[in-house]
What we know:
By secondary structure, the protein is an alpha/beta fold. The protein has helices at 15-25, 41-48, 67-80, 94-100, 108-128, 167-176, 188-206, 225-239, 245-250, 254-266, 278-284, 291-302, 319-322, 325-336; strands spanning 2-7, 29-32, 54-57, 60-61, 85-90, 134-135, 140-141, 159-164, 179-182, 214-222, 286-287, 308-312.
Amino acid sequence: MKIEATMRGIPLADVPEWARRCEEAGFDGIWTTETNNDVFFPLLLAAEHTRRVELGTGIALAFSRSPVHLAHSAWDLNLVGEGRFILGLGSQVRAHVERRFSSDYVRPVPRMRDVVLAIRAIWKAWDEGGRLDYEGDFYRHTLMPPAFCPPASPAGPPRIGLAAVRGRMTELAGEVAEVFLGHPLQTERFLREFTIPALERGLVRSGRSREQIDVGLALFTATTDEERERVRRRVAFYASTPQYRHILTMHGWDGLGEQLHHLSRTGDWSGMPALIPDDVLETIAVCGASADEVAAKALERYGGLVDRIGLHAGELSSLDQWAELPAAFGRELASRR
């Protein structure tokens, strides 16, 4: 199992030191978010100042960019990182795609399939030197003169990860992605009863086996009271989103989702965290008094279910608070063998 760190809210000037410390602490990967930083720029700096950790976008929005733009950014990062890059893609939700990015949000599942197939066709043309001739339902790429092709990379094409919360997008991840990127608003029950079965349906459709996809879990963790409250704010924010309501429904938390959504519509963001009771917080997040307690709880829930655990903080990714977790997970994993 890989234990990974999520880089969120780190100023670009601090990224080289943050990434270096992350690698020294024993993390297996570093992921960036499409929130208050550009999702690609920090990884270029991280690639230059690390040698071992994998690097990925968790996630890059697919529908606000052209497949060619995504293909170029991923190709360059994989070259600089010597094969360590994973292009993690996500659809986001309609409100953000349309109102924050002023892009189209139409038939997200078939469109995401088209994005992935288009990117792979572009990479194949660059890698093998053949003619680009891709025509899908949403994208058409039939022009790629040699002057616009990057040279073939010794690292080869990157891997593609796909984020999903709902069933059809999760099935698509099982069908076309090398890595599944789970959302931090999730629970053990949701993973067992909803996500894994949907991934398996996608794998069957593509004729692949479970070993051909890494299942990644985004996990909120907290070892201090301050961290717990930061995580509570993030849980409240995500739980206010109607597209994620089925997660709450599984646990009988529909009323909570409706209340949070109402406050988000009225702009009362500060009032939302108080609606998240401790039992809901601790069902979604893993909280403990120490790194060892967090590792033990996390593996009790998710050991054997996932291949990668990406740690998520409330607002800021603090290596001072995370530094002991890779070793704690290592000890706990060793004790379970």
